[in-house]
Amino acid sequence: MSKKNEAWGIEVGQDAIKAVRLTRHGQDVHLDDYEVIRFKQILSTPDIDVSEQVQLHLDKLIQKHDLTHSTTVISVPGHKAFARFAKLPPVEPKKIPDIVKFEAVQQIPFPIDQVEWDYQVFQQEDSPDVEVGIFAITKERVAHFLSDFRAVNIRIDALTLSPLAVYNAFAFDQNITASDDGVILMDIGTVSTDVVIVENGRIWLRTLPIGGNAFTEALVRAFKISFPKAEKLKREAATSKYAKQIFQAMRGVFADLVQEVQRSLGYYQSLNRDSNVTKLIGVGSTFRLPGLTKFLKQQLQIEVIRPDGFEKISVEGKREADFAENALNLATAYGLALQGLGMQAVEANILPGAIMRTRMWKAKQPWLVAAAACVAVAATLMGVTHFTQKAAWTAAADIGGNTGTDIQYKRVENTAKRFKTEYDQFVRDEDPRQRIENLRRALDYRDLWPHIMADISGALNSLGTE
Q1: Cβ(234)–Cβ(219) below 8 Å
Q2: Lateral strand order in the sheet of 277-283
Q3: Phi and psi, residue 115, nearest 5°
Q4: What b/e readout covers 126-142, taking b as 16+ CB neighbours within 10 angstroms?
Q5: pLDDT tens digits along 396-447
Q6: CA dist 234 to 165, 274, 289, Å?
Q7: Which long-range contacts does 214-219 make (Cβ < 8 Å, 24+ apart)?
Q8: Which residues contact 214 (CB under 8 A, 6 or more apart)?
Q9: Cβ–Cβ < 8 Å for 105, 63
Q10: Residue 107 in contact with residue 84, Cβ under 8 Å?
Q11: Rounded distance, CA 139 to CA 348, Å?
Q12: pTM metric for this prediction
């Protein structure tokens, strides 16, 4: 993926499209713009045409913002992809890709040729232990996901998992990778919850089958109201005079969520006996529910934080209050834009290989054209030189008759004598066998060039496929 100084991160959520544009200034970033375009109905609503709604709202995004000159990174939800982690034996770095591919075949629950996948190696400088995270999505699913962006002509430069983007956001914004204690990042989405455990420079993640819809459905059952009314009641719960009753109606979902988090944390700690997780950072609009932060703190016995904003990006002026209101939901888009700037802690790009190869050859096309132009210029110069020398020879012969020709012969004879003298001197002073061997080896790999030219020809033919 090409690195630019400007990048958009776009998350297509169940309730809205969230986008952040960052620019890079050295090791600092600046928030240039952001956008939250909400759907009239959440995408999990029965009988809704999801692709139509996504394309309609993406079109609204590009009508308001020019994405053509920026790197664009998007994400897929954690529950639509796979994340597996494995510890590798101490090996030479050059052997890691082969071992990782073997692990991928074992860990991914689909044939390897039916998925797009990437990996990240985690290793501390002072430790021989090597751990790898393998991230994958089926080719059918990613093709369907990308079709909505292709329909509105949005060029995608990288595709990753939403929980990895959340991690990248907090790794950069709060430098959580440098913490001595473990941290849980918890992103409660509409249909699922991503749990990312960060400790000792490595991560572990799991997606839980409980999201904001579960809380809404609990209100539907408790108050005998429609889903849209229950969703509105949940969103306004923090300021509602019925906050206590709302909390009681959702208490069972709170308990189920905590149980899933405890189960995940327990499994992680069984794999990492020295683990010391002391803090949970929660993002997502569901964290605004009254009592949720306190409930998690009591049940998990760790510090629970719901950030109001970010430390390294902010908005000043008229949109400051609006950004503060939406910041809790922009962590994924923030992390995606950071990856577009090349400032990510974990780079996992599961964009289809065919698209990436096309991107690469398109990027190299100007250089290929320039190289072809250089060859053409060189050939022209050779022709001009040959023509000039021939003209000079003819002119000398015409001017001097045989005398002119004799002069040319004399020059050639003198040159030959000089070469003969240099050769005799070389034979006396140096053993020529090594140089002869070098000349002989020039024929090695002579069959490689036709294959290279065939690959270049094939790549050029594929430039117009996208």
Answers
A1: yes
A2: 202-208, 193-199, 182-188, 277-283, 303-305
A3: -130, 155
A4: eeeebbbbbbbbbbeeb
A5: 555 555 555 666 677 788 888 887 877 777 666 666 666 777 777 767 767 7
A6: 26, 39, 7
A7: 214/253, 214/256, 214/257, 215/250, 215/253, 215/286, 215/289, 218/249, 218/250, 218/252, 218/253, 219/246, 219/249, 219/250
A8: 253, 256, 257
A9: no
A10: yes
A11: 16
A12: 0.76
Place of tokens 């061997």: 437
Task: Specify whether the CB–CB gap between 42 and 54 falls below 8 A.
Answer: no
**Would you state the torsion angle of the CA atoms of residues 137, 142, 145, 150, taken in this order, to the nearest 10 degrees?**
150
Q: What are phi and psi of 255, to 5 degrees?
A: -65, -40
Taking residue 324's Cβ as centre, other Cβ atoms within 10 Å add up to 13
Neighbouring residues of 453: CB distance < 8 A, sequence distance ≥ 6? none
Question: Is the distance from CB of 140 to CB of 151 less than 8 angstroms?
Answer: no
Q: 173-218: per-residue pLDDT in tens?
A: 998 887 778 999 999 999 999 999 999 888 999 999 999 999 999 9
Q: Which of 156, 119, 187 is nearest to 7 (CA)?
A: 156
50-53: long-range contacts, CB 8 A cutoff, minimum separation 24: 51/147, 51/148, 51/151
